[in-house]
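seq:
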Amino acid sequence: MNSKLHALCDGGGRPVALLLTAGQVSDYTGAKHLLKHLPKKAKEFLADKGYDANWLRKALIKRGITPCIPPKRNSKKNIEYDKELYKQRHKIENMFGKIKDWRRIAMRYD
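struct:
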């Protein structure tokens, strides 16, 4: 009885594509659907540990996109990622915060 919002954002944290799925749907499923909406000029892909999958990294590299996805804690391989670049992920979290704030206004909570 819940839902999950998957988002694809540009470098400034502005949403390019949004996908709403059931709460039990994995992040991998959301990634599969959002991959086709990646802009052709995309150079880097930042995502959290939920998107840690070899098939996703390979698909991004095939398109010439650098994946910046930290490995899960239980990962058998220690996959390297750019920690400085990953700090830019706060822009995506800020976008989710704004969406939640707009919801308060749309539902007339405020």
